[in-house]
Predict the structure.
Amino acid sequence: MNQNGEQQFHPVVDVGTQRVARVYAEALINSAEKRGQADALLEELGSLFDDVFRSDPEFEAFFGSAAVGRKPKADVLRKVFEGRASELFFNFLMVLNEHERLDLLRPIRMAYKELHDQRSGRLRVWVRTAVPLPDDQRQRLEQELRETFHKEPLLEGQVDPELLGGLVVQVGDWLYDASVRTQLKTIRNQIIERSSYEIQSRRDRFSTPIGD
Amino acid sequence: MRFKADEIVSVLQSEIDQYRAKIDTREVGRVLEVGDGIARVYGLSDVMAGEMVEFTRVGVRGVAFNLEENSVGVIILGEFVEIAEGDEVRTTGELLRVPVGDAVIGRVVDPLGNPRDDKGPIVTSLTRPVESVAPGVAGRQPVNQPLQTGIKCIDAMTPIGRGQRELIIGDRKTGKTAIAIDAIINQKEENVICVYVAIGQKDSTVAQLVENLRKYGAMDYTVVVTASSSDPAPLQYIAPYAGCAMAEYYMYEQGRDTLCVYDDLTKQAAAYRQLSLLMRRPPGREAYPGDIFYAHSRLLERSAKVAERWVIVPNDVDDSKVTDDWGVNRTPDGKGMVYIGPLDKEHAQKHDLPQYPGHKLAKVYGTGGSLTALPIIETLEGEVSAYIPTNVISITDGQIYLQPDLFLAGVRPAMNVGISVSRVGGKAQIPAMKQIAGSLRLDLAAFRELEAFAQLGTELDKATQSQLDRGYRMVEILKQPQFKPMHVVDQVMIIYAGTKGYVDKVPARQVAAWEEQFLRFMREQKSEVRNALLKERKLTPAIEQQLKAAIEFFQPQFKAPQ
């Protein structure tokens, strides 16, 4: 399980941006599939963020800035990526620059990831556990998910000691919570609810004429 | 009293033993933006419109209001300042519900049913959905029973029937709330459950009002639902629906008569406008959303007189347990025969019942309840043709129009008789009132016209002068102080005295004293006349004779106040 899985579950705020990003991502994946480079391109996209932008955030700001014109950006792109990146990826960056959409790289990457998972029959599953999941349990979980969703599960997740025990599995918008923390919370609420009902109904015996 | 530790331990132990762990499955989303009582949520792709959602970290609930392509607009019911971007939101699979039943009677609650009166938690297993569908055509019957407000001018000229919707409309400070409160206080003897919904009012006003209701013993059968002006707009918006649900419980489940006051719908409309604009729904006239009419019509449509269901049962059965299938006679398909509504009942009495000697016609328990609505609308400068007033006027079955100039002239309640109407209540008036009040309204309207003419200072002939004198006296008689609702029989007697000219000789300033002394005289010395009227509910010639004699007997006894 890697630590950056959380990213998928922190969506981009702007809904309109997302819609545009999806269009570009779809175009990109279509041409990548035609060339049989879908996986390689995903890796390239990932590497752009994890290796380049992480070590040099100003570079991302430069691409995202509207203050810099198309021309200077194209020059930089050419200098940096020509020859180093695959032809398809380089072309894609140039097209984005042409349309002044380089600021959308992040949402495009997310949309690409989603589309790629969808088309290859994979299912991203986010798992939170109190302690790191042992391999045999992890395999059992994968087996279970495979049978339930008929897709190849890709587990991402993190260790969250606050759960106390058990695990929390999230698939898309659905959350399956089998953590000890939630169960303790439920039982606490149940006890409070039932006791206050008892107290009230006994008190009512004195105050209402019906009583028993 | 001492606690027994092992007893508590054993209770907890049994709870834990009984606890069955199951995986908590929920659909989740995340808050994108939040503010002004609404939140935009990403995810929740399977949420239903109107479904209740929960902000898990802070435990606040909300309702899915807008379902959009990529996000869900949620109205937050409660404190929204704690909610932050990125918070988890979960679905509950339920509609918004409020606690109902005897546990809320006598309480002051917010629109979610949380107590606001420091009288401990409201614990009950009875709940009803806040939004529910109004009964259809077959489920209703015509309004046929009066709802006595105890206010002379209303009960005489714009009578309200049980199940009716009568709008109270007027400028600020014209006594709109006073009428509603008097109507609630008057239900003490009438066995009507009351719900008062305060929307966007000052908490101090509501506190004063609850104090008054308590003082007059009205809190024993009243629920006060309050969403004050400091509460977020979503709470103000759902308050009338929540109050209505509390009344509906008694109407549908127990067949009781209920009265619901919505004070006032202008503020609710403003709250709904705020929500809709924040949700970016397109604004229409006066920036209200397109469905503002529906917001009010679906609320007021829930007032109803539920059809009575009657069955023929043996004489000795317990009336409070009768159900639909108890009828001894069968329909062709083998079910128990049920007679629905007054026409069916009459048919059963005339034709079917005689075939079953030793049997009676019994009402199915829980049918025949009613919900009377008194919505209140505040106008600006008497402008009834503004958007919200015209909407609500067209929805309701009549309106009581209050005017500031009348109010300032000391005519209280400041009802403008000319344009106040009640479209269905006339059928529900008791016969005695119908007999004497028939012409009252026209006479008063004619008087107002004449009065305007008389102010020009022209010489008036004797007939006109006497008509004017009568008018002044009638106006005096129809005045009524607050918190003094009057029994309908007393109303009949005093209005009778007025319309028959017995008060014409009394100076206008002394009419109130005359009325008070006269009614006391009737109660203490001529109680047989009063009781006969109470029993017969109409002015038979015999009773009228007695009443006339009583008035003539009283006339010389009147002592003018110093």
Observations:
- The longest helix of chain B spans residues 233-253.
